[in-house]
Design goal:
Blueprint lengths: L3 H10 L3 E4 L8 H8 L5 E4 L8 E4 L5 H7 L7 H10 L5 E3 L7 E3 L23 E5 L6 E5 L2 E5 L2 E4 L6 H11 L4 E7 L3 H8 L9 H7 L5 E4 L6 E3 L4 E15 L12 E13 L4 E4 L5 H22 L3 E6 L8 E6 L6 H12 L5 E6 L7 H11 L2 H4 E8 L13 E8 L29
Parallel strand pairs: 1-2, 3-15, 4-11, 17-18, 18-20
Antiparallel strand pairs: 2-3, 5-14, 6-7, 6-10, 8-9, 9-14, 10-13, 11-12, 13-14, 16-17, 19-20
Length: 442
């Protein structure tokens, strides 16, 4: 199945779903409870004050649940994502969808959450926007947070130069409003695909279809003419107004506040939703947000580095680096020059990266203590440190030159020197330790 409810059932089967039946408020309370379980369980809120909608959060807040979402397990995440990108296929379009069960002209019924004390307002944080490419006629889908302004208007955050923004600029140049559609509450595979930055002219929904085994179906909407997942819980369609903007600011994936921006305004034409609908909320800066944004990039890095360098074993976007700014690359080193080449390629493949650390095959790239151990015992700052100055960085990094989007980057070669005694780097092992149980001796 390709809907959110099926995925929630799978999470419930592995006993990683908490169900809250007590009344809760959308103002800070849902965010606080989600933050409490960050990195562990998903939460389903069944009794939200002021609405009949249910709400789910922290859906893919762990690599384990992320693995389930992409049709496998934690060890097969990158294999499945890379394969789905390579073998993407357009979904079929059907004539009816369950989200057509209810229709409204306003957004009042949705449980839009207020997350942080200094944000400009409540935000829809799981909204995926669908738009038609003006050059190819094909659709594109991407994540965009939205802040309600009134009953049928919301600001919509767009990053300059990305697909939706390009389409908006094109419509504005033609003195037209841009028709788009929005979904909230979809199978996480659709969200994961929407977070992937596909090439201009290609549609991420085709990747989602591959992740879901080719079983995804779409429904064409009447006002916008756009096709959205028929299994969506909530669908909005309308237009981004060419001549309206609204101020907003929000918490980013680093858990820091962005500066105030004037963003375009989306006008709602229709709101559709299923019976007993489930709203999906993503808590900005916490594990689900970071994994949704970072894991598709991690898959991309694994695919590109393994293709270019056979000695690459695994690439990890670290939790400490917010799954966005820092990467650790595990390799089987063959030449002293390998780490430097890999560092350069990694920065090239994901320009938001600020730090790349290369480690040997005996170091777990997902274990911060082991990575630091490698730096302590295998790294010499005067020989193994690469510094890049005044290069393009992430707009999210508050320490960077925000005006010119420039930063400094650091590459660390924390691998064993091939010219030194190999026994000096060998990690000592105790035979049969894995088979020894302390409990048997107590």
């Amino acid at each position: 199945m390709t809907d959110l409810r099926t995925y929630i059932s799978e999470v419930k089967k592995i006993k990683e779903l908490k169900i809250i039946k007590k009344p809760v408020s959308t103002k800070f309370e849902i965010a606080a409870l989600t933050a409490k379980v960050d990195g562990s369980d998903a939460i389903l809120f069944e009794n939200i004050r002021g609405t009949d909608f249910r709400l789910v959060s922290n859906l893919v807040g762990t690599r384990k649940r992320f693995g389930i979402a992409v049709g496998g397990n934690e060890k097969k995440i990158h294999e499945n994502v890379i394969s789905s990108i390579k073998n993407s296929k357009a979904p079929k379009i059907i004539s009816k969808a369950k989200f057509e069960e209810n229709r409204s002209k306003t957004i009042d019924s949705m449980p839009i959450v207020t997350h942080f004390e200094k944000e400009s307002g409540p935000f829809i944080t799981s909204s995926i926007a669908y738009v038609k490419n003006p050059e190819t006629g094909k659709q594109n889908s991407s994540f965009h947070r939205m802040m309600p302004i009134d009953q049928n208007h919301l600001s919509i955050r767009m990053v300059e130069g990305r697909h939706l923004h390009k389409c908006f600029v094109d419509a504005k140049e033609h003195k037209e409003d841009l028709k788009i559609a929005i979904t909230v509450g979809v199978h996480p595979a659709i969200s994961i695909a929407g977070a992937y930055q596909e090439q201009w002219g290609k549609d991420e929904i085709n990747i989602a279809n591959a992740l879901l085994g080719g079983k995804l179906t779409l429904k064409k909407l009447s006002f916008s003419g756009l096709s959205v997942p028929s299994s969506a819980e909530i669908v909005m369609e309308g237009k981004i107004l060419q001549d309206k903007t609204h101020p907003e600011w929000m918490v980013e994936m680093l858990k820091t506040y962005d500066h105030q921006r004037m963003q375009p305004v989306f006008e709602v034409e229709n709101l559709f939703y299923r019976n007993n609908p489930i709203f999906h909320d993503v808590l900005s800066g916490f594990s689900e947000h970071r994994l949704l944004m970072g894991m598709p990039i991690e898959s991309k890095l694994n695919g590109e580095l393994k293709k270019s360098f056979k000695q690459t074993i695994q690439v990890s976007m670290t939790n400490g680096g917010c799954n966005w700014l820092h990467a650790v690359v595990q390799i089987k080193k063959g030449k002293e020059s390998d780490p430097k080449k890999i560092i350069e390629k990694t920065f090239e493949a994901h320009r938001s990266l600020k730090q790349v650390t290369v480690v040997d095959e005996d170091i777990d790239p997902n274990n911060a203590e082991q990575v630091e151990y490698a730096m302590a015992t295998r790294f010499q700052a005067d020989k193994d440190l690469i510094i890049l100055k005044n290069v393009r960085g992430s707009s999210l990094d508050p320490s960077s030159d925000q005006k010119n989007l420039q930063t400094a980057k650091m590459g660390i070669d924390a691998t064993r020197s091939l010219s030194k005694r190999p026994e000096g780097f060998e990690l000592a092992k105790i035979p049969k330790m894995d088979k020894t149980s302390l409990e048997k001796y107590l």
